Amino acid sequence: MRERLYSLLNGDGRAAMWYGRVMTALIVASLLPLCFKGSSPVLESIEYVCVLVFIADYLARWATADLKVGKGGLSFLIYPFTPMAIIDLLSILPVFNALNDALRTLRVLRLFRALRAFKLIRYSKSTSAIAAVFEKQREALLAVLCLAIGYILVSALAIFNVEPETFNTFFDAVYWAVVSLTTVGYGDLYPSSDVGRTIAMISSLMGVAVVALPSGIITAGMLDELRGGGISD
After folding, report:
1. What Å distances lie between residue 141 and 43, 216, 218, CA to CA?
2. DSSP state, residue 193
3. End of a domain among 93, 123, 153?
4. CATH number, domain with residue 181
5. CATH code at 101?
6. Is 44's pLDDT higher than 90?
7. Which of 49, 58, 114, 158 is 20 to 30 A from 152, alpha carbon to alpha carbon?
């Protein structure tokens, strides 16, 4: 029985294919309420139906965790802490915001609904391949992340001490550094002195290089995945 359930959830057969299509439709439907500021009986009904299915799916995957993780009884303890299981759990939490009046003020719970979009990774071979690339390249991407954080802190410290009259708080300096790193350039905060502008030019040049690094890493990983047959129809 559990083997059949596992095959339905993770297999490649016709039943698993249709299950994936139904779940994909429900995931998309569950995101519809986020497109409206208010609520309505129809939207609430869609939310409740989708969440009930998501809860059943989460429990079914947990019940077959040993077949997925492959570590015996320990699998049932490991599974809730896997990335997709965490996304599944967080995507269910917003329903408690609607059921409990005391939690209605916690609007942050509504944001967890957006995490349901990541559930689509499970039902698409292409997105699964992309997730596999991130998993394989996680050490390189983590190194780039550390480099970016270091760049932001150094740039923020430099500009904050050079132009304290422009950047009232260190958070303003960090915000400016992030905007410079991403080459967005909102223009709401900018240095006015020659030294500050010099720092801005150097930071912008470094920002372009830092932003380009993860793109190259992900592209190389995708090429390896394509050569290995990780993406196929």
Report:
1. 39, 10, 9
2. S
3. 123
4. 1.10.287.70
5. 1.20.120
6. no
7. 114
Burial (Cβ within 10 Å: 0-12, 13-18, ≥19) of residue 213: middle
Number of domains in the chain: 2
Contact (Cβ atoms closer than 8 angstroms) between residue 68 and residue 88: no
- Phi-psi bin for 39: left (phi > 0), alpha (psi -120 to 50), beta? beta
* Residue 218, both tokens: 């992900």
**Enclosing domain of residue 193:** 127-229
Domain boundary among 92, 123, 154: 123
* Residues in contact with 214: Cβ distance below 8 Å, sequence separation at least 6, in sequence order: 141, 144
Residue 54 near residue 24 (C-beta atoms within 8 A): no
Q: Among candidates 145, 209, 199, which has minimal Cα distance to 167? A: 199
Q: Which of 189, 208, 198 is nearest to 148 (CA)?
A: 208
CB 5 within 8 A of CB 60: yes
pTM: 0.63
Amino acid (1-letter code) at residue 70: G
Alpha helices in the chain (DSSP H): 2-10, 14-31, 41-63, 65-69, 75-78, 83-92, 94-99, 108-111, 125-136, 138-162, 170-181, 194-227
Q: How confident is the model at residue 12 (pLDDT cuts 50, 70, 90)?
A: confident
Cα 43 to Cα 24: distance, rounded to the nearest angstrom: 18
* 7-16, 127-136, 167-176: which is most confident: 167-176
> What angle do helix axes 2-10 and 41-63 make, rounded to 10 degrees?
120
